[in-house]
User: What shape does this take?
Amino acid sequence: MVVLRREIGDVLRDARQRQGRTLREVSSAARVSLGYLSEVERGQKEASSELLGSICEALDVPMSLVLREVSDRIAVAEGLLIPDTVPAEFTDVVGGSVDGSWARARAELAPIG
Assistant: This one.
């Protein structure tokens, strides 16, 4: 069974590790205790939207990208097909492009291997 808090924790941990940052660095920047951030990353605690926003800001990763990655992981677990492109109408709405920073940030969150 897919547990949302575990998927969120995995995505946050992956983003932090890709940046080569420690739990201590991110917890300090997010103004959350190291122990609590560790529990969030391990899927033991539910992050409130405010806390999730603080962690994403500390990681310099848009919350929308974290949630999209979580959504993609859940879709895979449910056996659904995930498009590998962003619809043009979406990029028009958010003012981005597939070559812009949004796409670069998305690539940072992409699973390795």
About this structure: The first helix runs from residue 4 to 18. The domain at 4-109 is CATH 1.10.260.40 (434 Repressor (Amino-terminal Domain)). The chain has seven helices and no strands.
